[in-house]
Amino acid sequence: MLTLDEDWHHGLSHGAFAFVTKPTTTEGLAAAITRIREYAVPRRKQLLVVEDDAFQRLSIEALLGHDDIEVELLSNGQEAIAAVERQVFDCMVLDLRLPDMTGFELLDQLNKLPNGKELYRSSSLPEKTSHQKRTRRCICLPAVSSSGC
Q1: Domain map of the chain by residue range?
Q2: Which CATH architecture group holds 43-149?
Q3: Angle at 103 between CA 53 and CA 95, to 5 degrees
């Protein structure tokens, strides 16, 4: 989907994959279409999991890992920043309580990186507080339990 919504966060949070801002140019539209085409090419998708609890990391990997998904498991914010600096990820699962920074601080740092701006983030959290508004753009797992599995 393409959005011409001036607030690209709003468009992405409603399912748009690429965005252009108004007024757009032919080059801007071509770049968005190229990004969609490149994403649609069959390839292994790159998932970044940032979770300090080793058991939780392995549980998330077992839950989300498939033949077509490459999962990178990291335990803190600095590792995540380094990973996003060297590689493009399609999606991220983020623990909001990391040992070296909060998930919110990590999101702020990632938004300053070229690869971090392209990272798709989604959440089903309601927008009640400013922290929740910022978190809506990431996948948040408040608790992952193995009971009943």
Answers
A1: 1-41, 43-149
A2: 3-Layer(aba) Sandwich (3.40)
A3: 30
How many angstroms separate the CA atoms of 73 and 62, rounded?
11
Q: Which helix (H) or strand (E) holds 69?
A: strand 69-74
pTM: 0.63
Continuous segment of H or E residues that includes residue 19 = strand 18-19
At 46-68, the pLDDT tens digits run: 899 999 999 999 998 998 888 88
φ, ψ at 16 (rounded to 5°): -70, 145
Q: Cα 82–89–103 angle (5° rounding)?
A: 60
44 token code pair? 């292994």
**Token pair for residue 144?**
């992952």
* 2 membership: H or E segment, kind and range: strand 2-3
